[in-house]
Amino acid sequence: MVAPIARDLEAVERVYTETLASAKPHLNRLIEHLNHYKGKRLRPMLLLLSARACGPVVKAHHILGAVVEMIHTATLVHDDVLDEAGTRRHVRTVNAGWGNKTSILLGDYLFTHAFHLTSTTGDARACELIGEATNRVCEGELRQTYESGNLNLTEEDYFDIIDGKTAALTACCCRLGAMYAGADAATIEDLAEYGRLLGRAFQVADDLLDLAGTEAKAGKTLGTDLEQRKMTLPLIRVLDSVPAAEAEQLRTMLAATGNHKLEQLRPALEQTQALSYARRRAEEFAKAAAARLERLSPSTCKDVLLALTKWSVSRES
Amino acid sequence: MVAPIARDLEAVERVYTETLASAKPHLNRLIEHLNHYKGKRLRPMLLLLSARACGPVVKAHHILGAVVEMIHTATLVHDDVLDEAGTRRHVRTVNAGWGNKTSILLGDYLFTHAFHLTSTTGDARACELIGEATNRVCEGELRQTYESGNLNLTEEDYFDIIDGKTAALTACCCRLGAMYAGADAATIEDLAEYGRLLGRAFQVADDLLDLAGTEAKAGKTLGTDLEQRKMTLPLIRVLDSVPAAEAEQLRTMLAATGNHKLEQLRPALEQTQALSYARRRAEEFAKAAAARLERLSPSTCKDVLLALTKWSVSRES
């Protein structure tokens, strides 16, 4: 890790912690539990790296780094209620520990604190960009829920969903980073597009993990997509590739209740090489993301952004 | 209704509808369902009346009127999931019709659209005030959930909860109304305090309705507070007023599962005159709210704000 970025990340952490701290002990226990959710801090990292690759890091970057992490955590807390997940990053989820009511309200608390924190930049434009991105996140999540069980989902539908639920926020992170570092309009657009493509690559890889990863490494309940009849890229590919009669049989199997779906799906997954196909698509997005960095002057942060495109498709957690 | 306010409310409705409209048919069906939730539009009314009582109504008032209604609707949608309520304003709730997942995400969608809409005023101060108020709303709701089942809740705790979940937003409405109408600092504070006290009066009256109202008039499931062991002012009063041994018996009854709690509670409610006590407290807040209007110049809107203080404690729905 580049030293200045490590210091920036610490500053982001401080803003995050100070913003959520409450005088109410019961609330503080809840907020402390969120520390266990602490993951890669990918979104603040993207924001800070985009900033340093373009110019100086300012106070707004630290504030907005905390904002994007708070929004991401809010969606995780609400996702866990939606998915009825019991484990996240190796510890029990908020809903498993405190119930759904508290989880819903804690997610709301994180959202409203994120928006209030954004306003402390004093810049309505930041509020607008964060608002736009979170609008898209919610649209994507709503569409995903609506389409759950739709076994005829197309690739186009799938990408519309992940552009909303994942790529809109990663694009926003990179845009804000570049913008507050004083980058010119073309560079800001390049970085926003880098963020969008990286988000796509990341989400396709995430969906692959749910099918082909190991729970021990991922640290969360896997196989939930199949269980919830949520169509992801490899599944769509399988159904598009096999003869119609076989596709119908697979749809019947996927629609049924009960376990062992992955085992039943495995022969078709191998025969159609659907996992390799999805991996290849993720790599294409990662490559396209990398291309958007070309106009940046050489720097260590540019190198890290470039390395992230490789990591996004090769990670195991 | 005063004619200009009716036109302002229509403008607020237009902003509200245009902001939430989506190109996705499945989303539009959900958003249309929210029209059934349409109630008194109390919060935009407070904002617009506070504005016209102080000065001219501007575009920001229409935008922020839609914002506060959207936030209120978001909390209703999430409340219905929390309460597992089946009916709201005489029609089925979103969670009863579409399930909890969709309700949680629709609430999030309303929150994020409200924040994005706020940013279109171009004023970070509006984002800050809306952010502050919604932070308090969530804190209040979280505390209410945490304290649910705490049969030793004090009056002070109760008022802290309702100041968050209700009064913070009504105070914010009046503050924003006065502020964007160009009122001076003292008037802005007067109106914010009017809004806070009116919100308190309104919430105490609402809690009374849940115990003493009729479902036909209120248009929603009543008695949910007792069912959820949520202590409200009359209940706290009863337990404070009866001898310790009787209070313990009542607590045991309230803590038990099963029905007919209201019937079992009725003798103690009558003996201690706890309903009258709560009504009297609501009236005190309403009166204190009215006093905050004294410095305003005479106007029809001032008269309506005054009338609202009376209505807040006498309504049946």
Q: Strands, helices and their partners?
A:
Two copies of one chain form a homodimer.
Chain A: H1 3-20, H2 25-33, H3 42-54, H4 59-83, E1 87-88, E2 91-92, H5 94-98, H6 100-119, H7 124-147, H8 155-180, H9 185-212, H10 215-218, H11 224-227, H12 233-241, H13 244-255, H14 261-271, H15 274-291, H16 300-314
Helix pairs in contact in A: 1-3, 1-4, 3-4, 3-8, 3-16, 4-6, 4-8, 7-8, 8-9, 9-15, 9-16, 12-13, 12-15, 15-16
Question: What can you tell me about this protein's structure?
Answer:
The structure is a homodimer of 317-residue chains. Chain A is mostly helical. The first copy, chain A, has a single domain, classed as Farnesyl Diphosphate Synthase (Orthogonal Bundle), CATH 1.10.600.10. The first copy, chain A, contains 16 helices and two strands. In chain A, strands 1-2 form a two-stranded antiparallel ribbon. In chain A, helix 7 (124-147) runs antiparallel to helix 8. The two termini of chain A are 19 Å apart. The model of chain A has no long low-confidence stretch (mean pLDDT 91). At the A-B interface, helix 2, helix 4, helix 6 and helix 7 of A face helix 2, helix 4, helix 6 and helix 7 of B.
